[in-house]
């Protein structure tokens, strides 16, 4: 049990409290939030004080690839399809021990940046193992690949084995989900099989969607670098005559709560399709900028009532895990940025009843930053304290 006092406490669901405090009980649940004199100090409670800082809900990173932490600044390819190919080669050259260490570093880097919940996509399972070992919170989506429709069964069998192995690690803090990677790496039958499986089992689903121009060209026209690469492997490519979003929403692959990552190449019709499907969106503004994909229409997505969170994507694209920088890149600051990085991120993951704000009964997931972080982005190293489920994990 501990009590944290701060110059400002930002519950997010209530106005900021000057000289406030939060009490977290032995179960790691928030027991009191309020002006400092009104928050009880039970006997034996551990007290921490940050008079010059702001106490906020732990940040929610809605898109990471923690198993790739060791590959930061290792991919010099510029053009996106070549970058993806180079990334695959770098992954193929990584041992399972390296993935394990890399994911563990990724978890610790996230905590050091004030992040208490990650929505992570990976193919090795190492991020889920690291989160379980270290006591982190998040959703890990096991990726499935297979652009050749004739090999759908093999991809599903591989996914089944991975999920059977990893499901033992799921807990109240750690969910296991699945992720059909992207339209240029997943065939239509595989998308359908994954969506059916997720529906049957009630598993969360995440997918990269509408990220690059090359992806739109591939889906709509059956042309461009992704199509050329598949045809070179003898895999048939079908022009769909519609956008990637329309392709997957119309086939029932994007369902209520499906986390659609990126959503840069979308028009107003796509936004409405996503909204009607009940999708959630993870935006990665700095990754999109780094790859030259453009900018997702945040205002239109929000106007359509979509649940939108921000993610840092992999450090191979972006270089660090600063969500404050993502908020700034999305044009958000102050209370708007804080809300997006906490409660809105939690809503995008369907976790808003457990995390995302400082309220009695919610999980004790907290972060303490110098107050300036709410005005201008600060480096991840500025984080003073990070707490997950009532346990100090950084600071
Ligand atoms: Zn990604």
Task: Explain what the structure shows.
With 395 residues, this protein is α/β, with parallel strands linked by helices. Helix content is 35%, strand content 23%. It contains 14 helices and 15 strands. The chain has helices at 80-92, 96-112, 126-134, 152-166, 188-201, 213-221, 225-232, 244-250, 268-277, 285-290, 298-303, 315-318, 323-329, 334-348, and strands at 2-9, 17-24, 30-35, 46-57, 59-64, 115-122, 138-144, 174-180, 206-209, 259-262, 280-283, 307-310, 366-370, 385-388, 391-394. The strands form three sheets. Strands 3-2-1-4-13-14-15 form a seven-stranded mixed sheet. Strand 2 and strand 3 form a beta hairpin. Helix 2 packs across helix 3, helix 4 runs parallel beside helix 5 and helix 13 packs across helix 14 (334-348). The two termini are 17 Å apart. The protein binds zinc ion. Zinc ion (ZN) binds at residues 63, 65, 121, 208, 261, 313.
Bound compounds: zinc ion
State the secondary-structure class. alpha/beta
| Overall 3D shape | globular
Percentage of residues assigned to helices: 25-40%
> Runs with pLDDT <50, length 5+?
none
- Biggest sheet descriptor: 7 strands, mixed
How many E-type strands? 15
The helix-strand sequence is EEEEEHHEHEHEHEHHHEHEHHEHHHEEE
Give the strand order, joined by hyphens, for the main sheet.
3-2-1-4-13-14-15
Instruction: Report the span from N to C terminus.
Output: 17 Å
Beta strand %: 15-25%
Count of helical stretches: 14
The radius of gyration over CA amounts to: 21 Å
Return the average pLDDT rounded to an integer: 95
